[in-house]
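debug: dumping io for the single-chain case to check the tokenizer round-trip. Nothing else runs in this session.
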Amino acid sequence: MFAPAYFDHNATTPLDPAVRSAMLPWLGDRCGNASARHEYGRAAKRALDAARAQVAAAVGAEPDEVVFVSGGSEANNLFVKGAAGRLPAGLIAVGATEHPSVLRPAEQLQRRGWQLRRIAVDGEGRVDADDWRTVLALRPALVSVMLANNETGVVQDVAALAADAARAGGTSCFHTDAVQALGKVAVDFRALKRAGVRALSVSAHKIGGPQGAAALIRDRRVDLEPLIAGGGQEGGLRSGTENLAAIVGFGLACELAAARRVEAAARLQALRARLESALAGMGATIFAATAERLPNTCYFALPGIDGETLVGQLDRAGFAVASGSACSSSEVGPSQTLLAMGVDPLLAQGALRVSLGAGNDERQVDDFLAAVQATTQKLRRLLGV
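debug: decoded output
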């Protein structure tokens, strides 16, 4: 079977073999429901508790601060809608470059009487300091700013932003989407909580875990209205029988990601530097090049080349890359993240994201660069540019 070199780890990661092995028993004979009171159920509950402790340890949280959900999008929705459900309608402020799973529920709140304010970013994708001060003067009830952007890889100083919000007073409840950050940069909920962050979202399939498991880490003082009511699982915040095999995998994936993070980041940053140096030599624009970014993420455009066309050509050449966020791939037009950064729409239309991971090496990067060079030359000949 044809298997392109995989350069799309921000969309999802391959399942780690050790994680798969840990999950397999819970897909077979270990069939208990963690809410049941017999030995099968008690064994399932022990596995659930162990995974909860592993996730908590990876992000510097307490186990009872971990609420298991089905994915990062559900975690983000649980915060946005859940927190809003316990408050009178007010102002929700979200970063202009947030993931759709924050932006769309915020827009739903707007249709229900809330005010929505998008926080502007600068040309490098960082929260604009002047606009942030303007937003804080409006006393938002809810704030969500992602820790690391899924397209550009830009890392925000969320602790400083949350501290600003706390000093400004009002009733702002601060959340951060840490789905892309986990396993790539340090994520410390205790430190973030001291600064004023009240909740963060993480997901298994971005760190070598399975799809279908994630968590909202929340300060116990935050009152949330459940999205799903029923049997009262997850402290009443997410009813429904837990996806035990996936959660067991999530727990181990968190433990492994935390143990490997520093070494992996150094290796990936060196690969990215090799990649970006060559791309710059081809005339590429590297978006957010001077901002702090995730070590594995390169978002670039080549003048006169359409991003979607390049993705398709590179796929046929044996390289799996993306033109932006996997969760908004059905949207037509240039990246909303790049437009919020003030990037020219024509250049933004050419954006292509490479997100490196554990299976990538220098040979793959060099082969990819050769394919980009050959493909762009061919496309320019065809287009007469």
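debug: round-trip ok. The first strand starts at residue 5 and ends at 6.
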